[in-house]
Amino acid sequence: MEFPKWSSILHGSNCILLLYVVYILFLRQSNSVSYEGSDTVKRVEEEIIHDEKVLETKFFLFRRVDYLIDLSFPAVGRRGWYVITFVISIVWIGVLSWLLVESGIAVASSLGISEVII
Q1: Mean pLDDT by 10 residues, the chain (118 residues)
Q2: Is residue 100, in this structure, part of any structural domain at all?
Q3: Is the full-model pTM beyond 0.90?
Q4: Closest CA to 70 of 56, 85, 80
């Protein structure tokens, strides 16, 4: 078994060190550039505002569904209610599964796909 020569190891480590120095210089240069007022920043800010509005709408809808689910379950802390809670859970799974299948059929029919495939 032949070991590598020290000169090749030192050459490789010098290359890595040189690349690291170039990387550090690039980071210093990129931090000194001002992005204020550029079109990219304005576009990103507008996208963030739009995404926040979409999230608020989704959160509003999910709060309503969560409220309905909370109303349908008895008090969670009570003993002896686990059978009723289990039955209500199965009913909710059935309702949500039916809703999912019917939504899939509606989307398939609007796209011209046979219901059998769905």
Answers
A1: 57 75 79 63 80 79 81 75 85 91 90 80
A2: yes
A3: no
A4: 85
